[in-house]
Every structure is written in structure tokens, then in C-alpha cells.
Design a protein that fits this description.
Layout: H1 10-15, H2 27-30, H3 33-47, E1 51-58, E2 62-64, E3 68-70, E4 73-80, E5 85-92, E6 105-106, H4 108-115
Antiparallel strand pairs: 1-4, 2-3, 4-5, 5-6
Length: 121
């Protein structure tokens, strides 16, 4: 969960920085399309009743100091309950992640195939 989504609670803001809520992201991704998608989701939430967001990462892009695995990809699924709409995004976790978040939209089936996960909404 982005820290920005917890601005209403000091405790929530602090908890958003727990290691269980963090994944190493390349600055091009984190400051670019990932951030833009987070802002877009905040806009959606301001307009509709209920939005469910699930995100994660997979792959092994590299390791920092033999302890932290940097994922090759980061992904996010957005479910808008009122319209029963599902959007899935798959981002490369490297310097090439510079396009609009919309260019990283994939089908839910493709994301499930690549991650080995199955989403039910």
C-alpha cells in the first residue's frame, strides 16, 4: 500500500514502510508509471464506491549484498466493484519502465499465467 494512501493515519503511514509492504523497484518504475498508476487509482477511488487493489512482484533481476532479491517484474490488479471491471498491469522493474502506465496493461489471464496466481473477484 502506498504511503500516500495512509495520510489520514500516522500509524498507517508508518506501517506502510514495513518490509512486508515493500519491494525493491527501479527508480524509473517507482517514479514513473507505477506512481502514475497509484495516482490514477486514487482518482478512481474518489469517484466510485469500492476498489480492490492487489500488487506484487516476481522474478530475479538481481541481488543486493547477498540478501535482497530485486524482482524482474512488478504487477498490479485493480478491481472496481461497481462496474465489475478488472485491470491488470505488468511492469518491467528496470530502466525501461518509462512509458505511461496504460502501455503496461495486460489481460488478467496473462498476468495469472506469468505469476502462477489466480485472482477471484
Amino acid at each position: 500500500m502506498p504511503a500516500e494512501d495512509n495520510r489520514c493515519s500516522g500509524r498507517g503511514m508508518a506501517e506502510s514502510f514495513y518490509f512486508t509492504n515493500v519491494a525493491p523497484q527501479h527508480p524509473s518504475l517507482n517514479r514513473g508509471p507505477w506512481k502514475d498508476l497509484e495516482e490514477h487509482i486514487r482518482y478512481i477511488v474518489s469517484k466510485v464506491d469500492s476498489v480492490k487493489v492487489i500488487c506484487g512482484s516476481y522474478g530475479n533481476y538481481g541481488v543486493i549484498k547477498n540478501t535482497i532479491t530485486i524482482p524482474s517484474y512488478c504487477w498490479k490488479v485493480v478491481f472496481i466493484k461497481s462496474t465489475n471491471e478488472v485491470k491488470a498491469y505488468l511492469f518491467p522493474n528496470n530502466e525501461t519502465a518509462v512509458n505511461s502506465y496504460m502501455s503496461y496493461e495486460v489481460s488478467l489471464q496473462e498476468l495469472e499465467l506469468k505469476t502462477g496466481l489466480h485472482f477471484n473477484f
